[in-house]
Amino acid sequence: MTMPFVILFGVAVWAGIQNALAGGGTFLTLPALMLTGMTALSANITSTIALFPGQVTSSWGGRGHVAGAGGLSFKALVVISLAGGVLGAILLLVTPSSIFKHLVPWLVLFATGVFAYGSFVPRKADHPPVLGKTSAGIAQFCIAIYGGYFGGGIGFLMLAALTAAGLAIRNANATKNVLAGVMNASAVAIFVFSPEVHWLQAAIACVGAAIGGVIGGHMVNRVNQKLLRAAAVAIGIALTIGLFLRAP
Q1: Domain that residue 219 falls in
Q2: How many domains is the chain partitioned into structurally?
């Protein structure tokens, strides 16, 4: 059983680099955790906990650019994200492992599609807001529920919603990083009490992702982010196919 843990550590380092530079680290940690013998449900919960510290550090750097959107203050967005993250985490914990096993290929497929769209479809830098106060709040709440439940592609979902609510790309990037950390913090606060968490694997992945995050921070101006995002999409496609083939 030693080799799967060695592989997990190496993959977690890669995931930390991937998250720091382009996102998509979940596509790496999920199969690596499953390789150590846990179910898809346990792997998803353990991955959320393992990658959370890296989210905190990445969001901290851009905190000065956070802003409200669609007539909602940033504090209101935080509260909405906390509530949605809690609800999503609770829904995940009450989902039987056998049902989640059938859901996870579709979740990964959806996340891969969102990630690919956000990575390669051009966005207009300036456009009039199309989401008002109520619609922006509903969108963020639904995204937060998904974030607490699974979370793959969450950054691009929020980026789309925040820019549709009138935020400039730079502010939307910083705001979605902080809000992603907030909704995952609420999920992690619930997950730490779950018996589905495999703490040894979580610790190994956390250390690896933290190291990868530091490495990624130094590589940020030297690496082609589009290539990294293309690699994440390719991994997501391969993971989706593998999960569908494994499903009974």
Answers
A1: 2-246
A2: 1
- At residue 110's C-alpha, the angle toward residues 109 and 113, to 5°, is 85
Contact 3, 199 (CB under 8 A): no
pLDDT in tens, 101-125: 889 889 888 988 887 887 777 766 5
Q: Does the pTM exceed 0.90? A: no
- pLDDT tens per residue across span 156-169: 888 888 888 888 77
